[in-house]
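FORM 7B - TANDEM STRUCTURE REPORT

SECTION 1: FIRST PROTEIN
SEQUENCE AND TOKENS:
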Amino acid sequence: MPDNIRLLSLPPYSPELNPMENVWDYLRQNTLCATLRDSYDDIVDACRTA
């Protein structure tokens, strides 16, 4: 690894650093939770609808 790059450890849950975590949290609580989908495309459609 080059000398000018330093790796930093992130906490396991850090929505302020990774905004996508907020999206997944919303989908789990409102749309995808306890719902079975037949295919990947069905899951993508449910996410888009949400």
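SECTION 2: SECOND PROTEIN
SEQUENCE AND TOKENS:
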Amino acid sequence: MNNTEQSTACHCDITDACKNLLKIERFHTQDNIRQRLIRLGYQHINQSTVSRMLSRLNVIKVTDAYGKKIYRLPSEGKSQHTDVSVSTKIEFITHNQLVVVIKTPPGCAQLIARVLDLNPHPEILGSVAGNDMVMVAPKSIHRIENCENVVKLLLDQPN
């Protein structure tokens, strides 16, 4: 096996190990994940490798039942389209001429932002999620109402 094949095999092993850990354990930081992987024998892993791996696995940070943020794998086998349960997690959508604001119940904002991230649109520059609020930056503030309408459409909300 040459170095490239060895690197790819190792990369797959560590990704699988990380995925399995995320299925069975709760991690609050990337360093917790890194330390656990080191204990499993992946001695040369650093934080940036963990970060890239979490990104490739589409891992999200969610609030657990105790109100703490943990890393979680996305639901497997689920459609990436908005379903009724997601659309019911939105209290309101509005804008202030600069950003579109989506208000959600506590712990739901990252889910809503993820739905927007999975459905890119030219009117949306990006989104930032907190615990119960998502701020969506429009591509142009001169088209803020179009951006708000797109957000509502992507999240199955009435215009």
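SECTION 3: OBSERVATIONS ON SECOND PROTEIN
Residues 3-72 form a domain with the Arc Repressor Mutant, subunit A fold (CATH 1.10.10.10).
The beta strands are 60-63, 69-72, 92-95, 100-103, 124-129, 133-138.

SECTION 4: SIGNATURE
Preparer initials: ____
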